[in-house]
Amino acid sequence: MRIVATSITVFLLASFLTYGLGAVGHANPAAAVLGDIATPADITRMNHVFGLDRPLLVQYFSWLGHALTGDLGTSYFTSVPVSQSVGQALPVDLSIAVLALTFAVVLGGAAGIAAALRQGGKLDRAVTLVCAGLATVPPFVIGIALIVVFSVFLKVLPSGGYVPLGTDAGQWLRFALLPALALSVEGAAAIARQLRTSLVAAVKENYVTGAVARGLPARRVLFGHVLRNAAGPALTVVGLEIPNLIGGAVVAEKIFNLPGVAQLALQSGSQHDIPLIQGTLLVTIGVVLVSNIAVNLVLLRLTPQARRPAGAAV
Amino acid sequence: MRTLRRAWRLPSAKVSLAVIGLVAVLAVFGGAIAPFDPLKQDPSLVLQGPGGRHLLGTDYLGRDVLSRLIEGTGRSVVGALEAVGVGLALGVLPGLASLWCGRVFEWVVSRLADAFMTLPYIVFAVAVTGVLGNTLTTAMVAIGVILAPRFFRIARAAGLGLTRAQYVEAAELFGASRWWILRTHIWSKVLPTLAVTAAQAMAAALLAVSSLAFLGLGVQPPAPTWGGLLSGDLQYLSQQPWAPLAPGLLIMVAAGALNTLADAIRDSGATDLLPGGGEFAAADSADASDGDVSADQPEAKENIHVPVPAL
């Protein structure tokens, strides 16, 4: 599988960059942990405890080896295993990102199909205009706007806080709804635009004329023929949106005060807690790559012609 | 310049250039224009509504919002410029070089670009500022590194079509050096496409600066920025629900103008000079208005497995 091979290469490179970033930092963790009263001998001893006196490549491979078995090291400050901190924070982001992705696909898909069906009409122009406008709105502005409307004026949804999905699904939805909506807007706009463009192009194809001429019902032509062919590029856009969703989740967490990976990253960043920084970054990269492989597998199932170049290029 | 003159014929370009000019004036002369000292606190005038002496009201410390908005422009624009500059420097040259410097170099640089593309920019910037220190330049270099693969792809795709053009082959046959070909034949034709990407990247970078400032990264609190203003408003939403409107609108208008300019340059036909370049510029960017991710382009196929951060 070419996709998997490429992803592994990219993962190795990205993880090395992640590790290298921590290594080139001027921050001296031993000095930071021990405080101002540490003697140089203390710092050397602490560096040995952290394993920072070994060559960079040795450190990297030992770190990566441990990381792949689920051990991301220990925080320099709290001595809590990094994997435990990340493991607590990740489900928050994942559950909200999945909800946001669902919103984006449903809203964007509906808007894109509707616009393409009424191509050139009022609805089409409205959708195009709204999508172009939304593309320039930063997600945090949307988040603030949602708080103003739903929490300040309507007082129907909380402006921040979180309950895990496993604890109480109904409460979780109350807290997750606004962040997920704020995150989904940008993706929904991108999906709607792409789907509209490729649908409009697909409707002009010969097989559509053929299907209509054979007397197939319009609904079946749309969902069986046109959408199946036009969905490929839109799905690629979904793949492109995934890093955005995860990046956007950082800001959403700050606005809605969610205990997610981003709060962890921000907190570890302000403390120069390098194992925690590296751990969050590595897990994020892993999530992006895995979801990317998933999107590509769906793409392969959906459009047979996408299979050819992947096989031919090896 | 010729590109801008062509684009100038479109009305949308005139409007967007006027907006960009206005933002530039605010960025350069902001300190002189601002009616009040943006850092001066007035405890007797806390959270005032718009009107009177303070046109946009005052914030939770009694500071003039309009002055803070104007003063913050410079910092936001400089940050975005830094990021785009780093992205151009790290992206364009390797992109063009990858066409000539052999397969090994090409493979390594392309995989590096893929690797950087998987990183969500905010998480990366948080990590970089966490390790290297929380300054505007550090944060913006991080954003620039994430932008670089975009420029790399565009420059590479644009150059790829040109290396097969007949006049380039002819020049090679006549013994022209690579550097000379790059300068005379390739550069001038890649430039309009790069301008489109740079305008889009600038819009993305402005949003990135604002997002990071919102998180408290890159700029330390008392200094005003667009994003910082918004995060300050967040705690007082119940008292002043309209407060985020002004900074939010300013960010949107500035980013919107840049995106409109990018569309105008493309619509003016400047990128058509390039064999397939214009289409690729659209295909590579998820925020292009007619961003048709064409599966028939060889480069698009090669790239289909990697996410392009639209930032």
Automatic annotation (TrEMBL), chain B:
<keyword id="KW-1003">Cell membrane</keyword>
<keyword id="KW-1133">Transmembrane helix</keyword>
<feature type="compositionally biased region" description="Low complexity">
    <location>
        <begin position="284"/>
        <end position="296"/>
    </location>
</feature>
<dbReference type="InterPro" id="IPR025966">
    <property type="entry name" value="OppC_N"/>
</dbReference>
<dbReference type="Pfam" id="PF00528">
    <property type="entry name" value="BPD_transp_1"/>
</dbReference>
<dbReference type="InterPro" id="IPR050366">
    <property type="entry name" value="BP-dependent_transpt_permease"/>
</dbReference>
<keyword id="KW-0812">Transmembrane</keyword>
<feature type="transmembrane region" description="Helical">
    <location>
        <begin position="121"/>
        <end position="147"/>
    </location>
</feature>
<feature type="region of interest" description="Disordered">
    <location>
        <begin position="284"/>
        <end position="311"/>
    </location>
</feature>
<dbReference type="Pfam" id="PF12911">
    <property type="entry name" value="OppC_N"/>
</dbReference>
<keyword id="KW-0472">Membrane</keyword>
<feature type="transmembrane region" description="Helical">
    <location>
        <begin position="12"/>
        <end position="36"/>
    </location>
</feature>
<dbReference type="InterPro" id="IPR000515">
    <property type="entry name" value="MetI-like"/>
</dbReference>
<keyword id="KW-0813">Transport</keyword>
<protein>
    <submittedName>
        <fullName>ABC transporter permease</fullName>
    </submittedName>
</protein>
<dbReference type="InterPro" id="IPR035906">
    <property type="entry name" value="MetI-like_sf"/>
</dbReference>
<feature type="domain" description="ABC transmembrane type-1">
    <location>
        <begin position="73"/>
        <end position="262"/>
    </location>
</feature>
<comment type="similarity">
    <text>Belongs to the binding-protein-dependent transport system permease family.</text>
</comment>
